[in-house]
Amino acid sequence: MRKKIIAGNWKMNKNFEEGMALVSEVSNMVKDEYSGSAEVVFIPPFIHINAVGRMISDAKNLFVGAQNCSNHASGAYTGETSASMLKSCGVSYVIVGHSERRQYFNESNDWLAKKVDAVLANDLNPIYCCGETLEERESNQHFDVLKKQISEGLFHLDEAGMRKVVIAYEPVWAIGTGKTASTEQAQEIHAFIRNLISEKYNHETAQSITIQYGGSVKADNAAELFAAPDIDGALVGGAALQSRSFTDIIKAMK
Ligand code: PGA
Fold first, then answer.
1. What is the reported pLDDT for 87?
2. Which site in 193, 201, 237, 238 is 20 to 30 Å from 246, CA atoms measured?
């Protein structure tokens, strides 16, 4: 069975008090109301990671992640945070290549491949994001774009490395827009990505990899998305900022 993962990416939201309240509420709701098998990952801004890690250290299905990391191991890189620092603060997952990093910080596939390496070198799991813009979809380039993102960012890995990767398919046109990909659209892309992995590695590796969907996931569309055979969870933005909406999404994963 593939691992199911519901991750909440807070982006640059929540001050300390608000963040701790959210984690405490979600943790309690998960403990009291969730009997499913998904891993739940909080992905707060760096500055809250340590505190979140401490709050959830006793819960077996709760984890903390980071939104980014440096591709360097250490040194004179002002403002950066290394994967080994994240590891020492209890992080399990690191988002690499979110579309906002690609768009606003000009992160290229080659650059992201180095971040994937830094994450794996510290025995953490990258959540590698990919997804096409609206323009790319409308001009029918989405398969090519995704193939390039996946192959340039990940296909330098050996099979053992690849098996530690989580992939998040996040169509840029669905992020923060309230416009979710239909279950058919998402399933089509997830199956396409799994097939790319199967061609490059093998069937078993492709079957073992968790592929999350992201882009306006909400309580009322989560169950349908999760019922699709190749959708193994969600990377949630806006709806992860409220305890009830995030917990309702978690509960949609059996
Ligand atoms: P959204 O964000 O759920 O607010 O659309 C998803 C993401 O960017 O990971």
1. 97
2. 193
Q: Is 86 in the pocket of ligand 1 (CB under 6 A)?
A: no
8 lines ligand 1 (CB under 6 A): no
Instruction: Report the CATH number that the domain containing residue 51 is assigned in CATH.
Output: 3.20.20.70
Q: Is 7 in the pocket of ligand 1 (CB under 6 A)?
A: no
pLDDT tens-digit series, residues 90-120: 999 999 999 999 999 999 999 999 999 999 9
Taking the CA of residue 175 as reference, the ligand 1 atom at the shortest distance is 5
Domain count, the chain: 1
pLDDT digits (tens, 9 = 90+) for 212-224: 999 999 999 999 9
Pocket test for ligand 1, best of 95, 217, 220, 249 (most atoms within 8 A of CB): 217
User: Three-state secondary structure along 119-168?
Assistant: HHHCCCEEEEEECCCHHHHHCCCHHHHHHHHHHHHHCCCCHHHHCCCEEE
* CA-99 nearest atom, ligand 1: 8
- Judge whether 170 counts as a catalytic residue: yes
Per the CB < 8 A criterion, the answer to whether 63 and 92 are in contact is yes
Q: Is the pTM of the predicted complex or chain greater than 0.90?
A: yes
Tokens of 191: 């199956």
What is the residue range of 78's domain? 5-251
Token couple for 87: 């590891």
Please say whether the beta carbons of 9 and 226 come within 8 A.
Answer: no
CA distance 96 to 99: 9
CA 237–ligand 1 middle distance (angstroms): 4
